[in-house]
Each structure stands twice: as C-alpha cells, then as structure tokens.
Amino acid sequence: MHKTLSTNDYIVFFLYFITIVGYGLWIYNRKKKEQASSKEYFLAEGSLTWWAIGASLIASNISAEQFIGMSGSGFKLGLAIATYEWMAALTLVFVAIFFMPVYLKNKISTMPQYLNQRYNGNVAMIMAVFWLLLYVLVNLTSILYLGALAVSSISGLNITLCMVFLALFAVMITLGGMKVIGYTDVVQVFFLILGGLATTYLALNLVSEKFGTTGVINGFNLMPEKADGHFHMIFDKSNPNYMDLPGLSVLIGGMLIMNFNYWGCNQYITQRALGADLKTARSGILFAAFLKLLMPIIVVLPGIAAYVLYQNGSFQTELLQDGSLNPDRAYPVLLNLLPTGLKGLSFAALTAAIVASLAGKANSIATIFTLDVYKKKLNVEASEQKLVNIGKMTIIAAMIIAVIVAPFLGIDKKGGFQYIQEYTGFVSPGVFAMFILGFFWKKTTSNAAMFAMIGGFLMSIVFKFMPHFVDLSFLNGMGFSVPNAEGVYEIPFMDRMGFVFLICVIGMYLISIYETQRGVKTNGLDVDKSMFKVSPGFTVGSLIIVAVLAALYTFFW
C-alpha cells in the first residue's frame, strides 16, 4: 500500500496547520484583555456564539476513534453502528431542554462543582479524581494513540513522532483557553466535514465503477443490493454482532444511559455550553444535534463501501494486518486512494478531528484539576492568574503522561472505539443515576450518590466477570445473553449498563428514603417548571430531528 503523501499534500496540510495556529493566536491576542479570570479562561464565559458552541461540541466529539473505529465498525457491522450518532442527536435535544437550565440556573461551571453543591465535598472530590484518571488514562491516551496510528499509516512517519506532533499541536491550541478552542473548532469542523465528504465521495464512486456504472448516487444505491445485511439498524440475537449492538437496547436501554452520561454529565462536553446564556446554549446544542444526523455519511458509509469492494475482490492485501483482516484499516486505505491535494485535505481533516478532541479533553482535565482539586484542597487563596497558570501546567503535564503511557495500554488490540465505550461504561450508569436523581428528586442524599458512584463501578466489574462463575444461558430467551467465541454466555455490555443503572436507581431510592425518614437534610437545587420552556424555533428544530430519526429507523429497521 502506498503510504506517503506527495509534496502537494504536505503543502495543503501545512497551510491548514498554519491557518489554525494563526487563527488561534489572533483570537487569543484579540481577547487577551478579557482573559483575566479563570472562568473566562476555562469556560470562555459569555463569548461563544451558538454556532461556535455547536461546532465545538462536534469537533470535540469526532476524533480518530470515529473516523477509524466507526468506519471499521461500518465495515464489520454495517449501518447499525450509526445508532451511536443518531441516538446522540435525540439525546442532545433532551440535554438542551432538561439539563442545561439546571446547570445555568445554579451557576454550575464544572461537574464536580455540581456534585459538591448538590451532595457534599467528599462525593465531588472522589468523582473529580475518578474523572481525571478516566480522562487522562482512557480518553486522552486512546485519542492520541489511535490518532497517531492513523496519521502514521497515511504519512508513513514513525508512530511515536506522530504522537509527539499531535500532542504539541493540541497543546498550542489548548493553552489559549476555551475561547481559542471554541473558535478554532469552527474551522476544524469545516475541514473535518469537507475532508470526510471527499472520502465518502471517492468510496461511493469506487463502488459504482466496480459494477460498471458511474456516480455517487449509483454507488449508494448499489450498496444495499450488494450488502443487504449491512443495512439493518436493529439486530436479532442470532446476529454474530449482537454482543456489540444488542437489539432494542440500542434505542431504549444502555445506549441512552451512555449518551446521557456522555452528553449531559461530562465536563468535556458540557463545558462548551456552560459559559453561555440558556438561549445560546440551547441553539448551539440543537445545531450539534443536526450535525450528528449527518455524521454517519462521513464516518460509516466509507466503511460499508470498503466492505462491498472487499467482498468483490478489492483491497485483499491492503486490509490485512499481520495476515488477518483488520476492519480498522478501511478508512486509511480509502484515504490513500484520494488524488493529490485532496489527500492532503482529508489528512488535514483527520488531524483536525484528533487535535480538536485532544484540546477539548486537555482543557477539561485542566478545568477539573484547577477549579475542583487545586483551588479546593491545595491552595484555597490562589489568585485568578495563579489558577490560569496552574491550568496551563496541567495541560502540558496531562499530555506528557498520555504520550508516555499510551503505547503500553493495548488500545489497538481491542479496537479503539470499543476500548473507549467499554471502559467508560464502567462508570456511566452510576454517574448518570447520581446526576439525574440529583436534578429532579430533592430527597436524594449524599450517601445514596456515593452508593451509585462506587457501587455502580463495582457492580459493572461483577457483571463483566460473572460469566466465568455463573451460567447465564437462562437470559438468552429474553435476549440478555449470547454465547461468545468460547461458547460462554455473556451479557452484552450495553445491557450490563442497563442492569447496573436500574440497581443504582433502586439502591439510591431506598437509601434516600431511609435517611430522610431519620432526619437527614439534603441540598436541593434551584429547579422550577418555567426553566424547561423552550422557544418556538427550538421546538420546530427538535421536531424535525425526531421526524428524521423516525423515518431513518423505519426505513432501515
């Protein structure tokens, strides 16, 4: 496989690099006077527009695990993997209506601050440490490693060199603070979508040419015909991929918990909107939801196209890694077929996605460490300037740790997308239970939250290893267990999340009832019904999203 970029591709890429860094510096210098406070630095308080918030949400979310991992999953599973994107669009609508008003009304700027305000300092501190470990050792490392793997496979450069370059690029963006991240993300998303569409266009053209026609429309129409099994959204339990996407759970079970935790209870994501007023935040989140509907076109379709081509004799050697088929190679293989210049643009788009995600994640790590650990425990009297400096040092330290640790975690062995989903899934049910009950049920106590956080994590581990000790074949009839490669019945991880969430909610309810009857006082939030009213424009936008989703799932069921 041809693995190098031409001189013109490098020119296109470096022009992109200079544009982003130059634009970031311009924003930083223009807004420098306003950047005196820590909140301004970490949250870009009041200065991000709705389109900057929406674009930044997508740029932070879409990274190498989507481009590489989701295209690979598109190759293996088909269109069903798009449920991660499409269900996220619906989740974002709910987050905008019900979550954002609670955060903004109660002046929440970080997720541990919410936990401190609603429960107590112990819950907040334990969770802050939890998040820091998860963000640095799972998210930052996997984005960095997978990104470097992708960049290396296209450019032919050494993987360690690629990791260092990506880390440096991300640090340059991140040190400018949230405002620089937000506005550079708008440019990053533009390139990301443009480069992504170029790759999809090429892939669909290749399909049509393979079968003696021309044009992307013909290519798209041929795919369901040639790979019918790859165009079903809901799997039954006889499907070999049921373990990854277990039937209706992708609509009403674990997928919802995962999405609500990711989009509603996650510093990394909510940070984009926390510095805005409610109307701007909602408009930004709705814009992100519309972009989410389009994402499968650029991250899933190329993978399915590569599968159709592979099944019909193309890429027989290019998709092999160590002698066996590796679906995660589908996207880089297609990228390498792009014409000169366009290849550089798509390479820039991939780099944009990686750097934007790294920058967003590093900013969140710095925000949580500075405002919730350093300011609370290490230096209560710290000046605003001191906090900003500590934030910058944290960004550099987190990136160095990620570069050192990433090669030793076996991220590539598991498949990047699955690696992130599964390990985040250990904490998601407990965190979401703790947040949602804290929002809407004033009797929820601190001990109940502690039970969800620690108990939820321990239960996730128990459910993970249960098949080694207990025969779970009795759950097969209901679709809650399927045999793995060794013939052992396992619970799909999405269903595990659903079970753990239900246990957390029941446990929290019982603990809270018991404690409030004994006179324990709780810290309820300022919540009233009027907060959840939305504008007519938002209502129309939300209904369009629901209608599009209903049509997609009906058509591809």
Short description:
The chain has 557 residues and is mainly alpha-helical.
Which secondary structure elements does this structure contain, and how are they paired or packed?
Elements: H1 7-30, H2 38-43, H3 50-61, H4 64-76, H5 83-105, H6 111-118, H7 121-155, H8 159-174, H9 178-210, H10 216-226, H11 249-252, H12 254-264, H13 267-274, H14 278-299, H15 301-311, E1 320-321, E2 324-325, H16 330-335, H17 342-378, H18 384-405, H19 411-414, H20 416-425, H21 428-440, H22 446-465, E3 482-483, E4 489-490, H23 493-517, H24 536-555
Antiparallel strand pairs: 1-2, 3-4
Helix pairs in contact: 1-9, 1-17, 3-9, 3-13, 3-14, 3-17, 4-15, 5-12, 5-14, 5-24, 6-7, 7-8, 7-17, 7-18, 7-20, 8-17, 8-18, 9-10, 9-14, 9-15, 9-17, 12-21, 12-23, 13-17, 14-24, 17-18, 21-22, 21-23, 22-23
Q: What profile does the largest beta sheet have? A: 2 strands, antiparallel
- Low-confidence segments, given as residue ranges, are none
**Class by helix and strand content?**
mainly alpha
Report the CATH architecture of the domain at 7-111 and 136-367 and 380-411.
Up-down Bundle
* Number of β-strand runs: 4
How much helix, percentage-wise, in residues?
over 70%
Query: Could you give the order of the helices and strands?
Result: HHHHHHHHHHHHHHHEEHHHHHHHEEHH
The general outline is: globular
* CATH class category label of the domain at 7-111 and 136-367 and 380-411: Mainly Alpha
CATH topology of the domain at 7-111 and 136-367 and 380-411: Sodium/glucose cotransporter
Q: Give me the CATH superfamily of the domain at 7-111 and 136-367 and 380-411.
A: Sodium/glucose cotransporter
**Alpha-carbon Rg, integer:** 23 Å
Strand content: under 5%
Q: How many helical stretches?
A: 24
Q: Which sequence of strands runs across the widest sheet?
A: 1-2
Ends: how far apart? 37 Å
